[in-house]
Write a structure and sequence with these properties.
The strands form 2 sheets. Strands 2-3-1-6 form a 4-stranded antiparallel sheet. The protein has a two-stranded antiparallel ribbon with strand order 4-5. The chain has 7 helices and 6 strands; from the N terminus they run βααβααβααβββα. The termini are far apart. Helices cover about 30% and strands about 15% of the residues. The longest helix is centred in the C-terminal third of the chain and has 11 residues, at about 135-145. The chain has helices at about 15-20, 20-30, 45-50, 60-70, 90-100, 110-115, 135-145; strands at about 5-10, 35-40, 80-85, 120, 125, 130. The chain has a single domain, classed as Nucleoside diphosphate kinase-like domain (Alpha-Beta Plaits). By secondary structure, the chain is of the alpha+beta class. It binds adenosine-5'-diphosphate. Adenosine-5'-diphosphate binds near residues 102 and 124.
């Protein structure tokens, strides 16, 4: 069940896909010895991008960062992200350390963002991955991006409910 700092949402952002970095990023993250408990490819809607970055809604770069997460600034085939939930002791800290600072130019040069990120001429921090910053964010983000059945471990408490579904059948 819920343990402190023990799960984190990672998103390989569209620039990571454009630059063919998926394998490199997964290799770096595997060095943390954390385990993957869920993974999928997601076409990000504006609603999801804005919800994910709700804490930035008053920032001047809010729309640009939503466009970036949706892949709108790249070719259509890159309008996607890879979403992964990592679990294991100290997951948030271990991944944040490996990811490096938000601004890729300030990130440790051997971190993922330091190695692969850049600041675009329009001033967007293309920093290749997202990773949860703290426990509260991790819980909010994992619940936003994944349904309980999409994770192979119950990282947060869930419950089964019966839902009534309307569908057309033969008379
Ligand atoms: P992090 O992704 O490190 O948790 P934030 O939540 O503050 O950082 O920001 C979300 C994303 O918005 C960053 O990863 C980056 O892509 C972009 N961003 C943040 N701050 C800036 C900024 N000052 N200028 C341009 N882009 C930014």
């Amino acid at each position: 069940m819920t343990r402190k700092n023990n799960q984190s949402l990672v998103l390989i952002k569209p620039d990571g896909l454009v630059k063919s970095l998926t394998g490199n990023i997964l290799t770096r993250l595997s060095e943390t010895k954390l385990r993957i408990v869920g993974a999928k490819v997601v076409k990000v809607t504006r609603e999801l991008a804005e919800e994910h970055y709700a804490h930035l809604k008053d920032k001047p770069f809010f729309n640009a960062v939503a466009d970036y997460m949706m892949g709108k600034i790249y070719a259509k085939e890159y309008e996607r992200v890879i979403a992964i939930v990592y679990a294991g002791e100290g997951a948030i800290d271990k991944i944040r350390k490996m990811a490096g600072a938000t601004n890729p130019e300030e990130a440790d040069q051997t971190s993922i963002r330091g190695q692969y990120g850049r600041v675009t001429t329009k001033g967007i921090f293309e920093n290749v991955i997202h990773c949860s910053a703290n426990e509260e964010d991790a819980e909010r983000e994992i619940k936003l991006w994944f349904k309980p059945d999409e994770l192979i471990e119950e990282v947060y408490a869930s419950e089964e409910v019966e839902v009534k579904v309307k569908k057309r059948i033969w008379k």
